[in-house]
Amino acid sequence: MSLPLALLGDFGEAIKFIFQERESVSGGVQIGGIPEMAGFGLTHMHVSIVAILIAAALAIPLSLWLGHIGRGEFVATATSNVGRAVPSLALLAFFISFIGLGLNNVIAVLVLLAIPPLITSTYVGIRQVDRDAVDAARGQGMTGWEIVSKVELPLALPSIFGGLRTAAVMVVATATIAPLANVQTLGTPILTPQTYGFVGQLGASIVVALITVAVDFVFARLQRAVTPAGLKLSEMPARRRFLFTTKRSFKPT
Amino acid sequence: MEAPATHSTAEPLEFCDATKRYPGTSAPAVDGLSLKVPAGEICVLVGPSGCGKTTAMRMVNRMIEITSGDILLGGRSVKDRKTSELRREIGYVIQHIGLFPHRTISENIGTVPKLLGWDKGRIKKRSEELLELIGLPAETGKRYPSQLSGGQRQRVGVARALAADPPVMLMDEPFGAIDPINRERLQNEFLRLQAQVRKTIIFVTHDIDEAIKMGDRIAILQEGGKLAQYAPPAELLTYPASRFVEDFVGSDRALKRLALQRVRDIDLWKAAAIRVGTPVAEARAKIAEADVSFAMLVDERGRPLGWLSDRALTGERVTEELRSPARPIVELDDVLRDALADLLSSETRYGAVVGVDGALAGVLSLEVIQHFLQAAPTESPTGADLLAE
Amino acid sequence: MTVPLAQLQIQEPGGSDACAAANDFCPSWIVENIDRYWSPLLEHVYLTLAPVVIGFAISLALAILAHRRRWLTGPIITVTGIFFAIPSVAAFFLLQPITGLGYTTAIVALVSYTLLIIFRNITNGLRNVPAETRDAALGQGLTERQVLFRVELPMAVPEIMAGLRIATSTTVGLAALAVFAGAGGLGTEILLDKRFKSNVAVAGGLAVLLAALFDLLLLALQRAITPWQRARA
Question: Which residues share a beta bridge with B308?
């Protein structure tokens, strides 16, 4: 294993760092290796999952309701504009300086970052449901709740899961800088070079990159799985299958 | 509306056994189509969907490549031409128009002239000329397609096709997306325009009534891209060549023939035209000479006022006592079908026919129309037997 | 347990006045010290513009290529999608063995982030051109190249500009992390003194303002080059 890794130079060393413990740059402490990385990884996933769940619980029902009654377009679009313009680093620093350090504050930052894409995707998902379908549902005597649960929600699910995918990738990525608020995630080796050295920074970067790509992949699969069969058929004629992967354009709102 | 000063002469168009076969399909889309379109005439390709009419049209400017056979434009094979150059010489109008939304109306009209490298002044002058020709105000040129109504856009589509004064035009269901009232108006406008510009036109439609109205000649295609009959409209209606053509033109083809004839084309009845104050004896003499036993009271310029009652003829001179108003009034230039409709809707057997000056020119009756329809034989003696399945 | 970012010098809350010493939000400190933010701000502008311009050029080339060869669209979306998913902080370190510390690393990583957004929007913009418009263009004798440059691309401008606006505001946010690639920017100031409220407010606020300013400029540009979008009957 060590010969091919040596050929990879810094990357080889970095991969070794992930799997094998070593002495820290400043000496005296053992760093790297599976146990330590797994610990960082657990914290990383812990803050990410909690943040996504809270954000989803707050944003999705609210924007489902807004979308259903057709109000609040301004709120739905303005949040995503503002959300994009605020750098994650600035938001975290704002929390650190004005509110304080610690797990809860990091989670709060991640929740704030995840909310805008969720609001926009849910709202847009509901609003783009064919109004004729909703009208037909009402004409057949469905109640408001039945329309939401049987017509609007199923048809909006692909869009909602698209938002979850964006939010999840963003949250996992941003959890990397959580150590600035003293929460030890996979970003710790990256932000502490005096202990971990460049090899540690690179090793942690590899792990973080792999995790986000995996998260992206899983949510892409989920998004496909929740797409109603009828929509899949109409959106993906055999000749133009790529259309589905192309999806909608990015829209500033 | 003046016709543009410079005119390219229209060219004849000829399909020579033109065939289109798509790869992977056994049946051809267009099967050995042969027909000649004389210069300056409108040839309508008509038929049910899937008969290959649009395919046949699109082979002319090679939007679809010809599999075998040939198409000659002015005696020259379209296959020998570079496609982009060929297309710049052929006007192209499609159902959805396809105006460029990001270009002004003037720029849209100037598309082909610009490709041909005309200078700016000439393009500007040409687009003004064409806007006038299609009856749109000059300031329309500065607007964008989204600011125009559907009918206006369709007119611009025609102007754009005429921009470089092409000898040939292709029109694919050009009025298909327009509502019936505006469609009729656009059709009439286009026929007037064509009377001025005299292009050779291939016109595709699925609507037999439109075909009869627009075509100098009609080519009826049937499934499999086979030519069922190629003839002027009147001949097509009078002598359908096969059961298919007979079915396609419809069981009302006698009525459709009425759409091809104008009131002035048939023998009208004569009626006595009498003014107030005419001596009754003179009036009675006139009535005796006429084909109708009622007399029409007219004003001093001969315009019909109403049918005289018997009491008007009881005194010395004719008085203004009417049995019924002069309704309907039909013009000599009306097509027979419209005139018949007027008669039927007025619940009367006689209609006063007037000329351009409004003066009484004769009387149209149901009998007159019936006579006209019986005059021409409705069955072809041999055509149907030859081509029926 | 660990000391955050010792390679950056940690300063005591700057300024001499009592407000700053008490770490409050101090307008007077901001007025006195605003000068130190100009050069990071300029770096930030550079770190935004360069990636967006380069990313646009690459995406346009890829989109034109994929327009001709449709089968390329899927693979391009997949690859740029992976670039899009990799956190920029990680990308800055993954690139360092190859491109070293500095602008190059930051810009390469940020460019890779813009590709998916801009490519997808150009591609969709081109595909949304109605079939009849293409047909009319070809039927009038425009060549394929003329159709692309005179009809399809101009008609796709609104969607392309939408992509550029999103790519730009996203890049302003990510450029704050370029400090980890050793490329400066407003992130440097934030990290330098991340507990000092006034500092965080100024540096973060400038980044937000920058994003808003770029967005307005792009919106104005879009309106200027798409007059037909405003023309309605």
Answer: B322
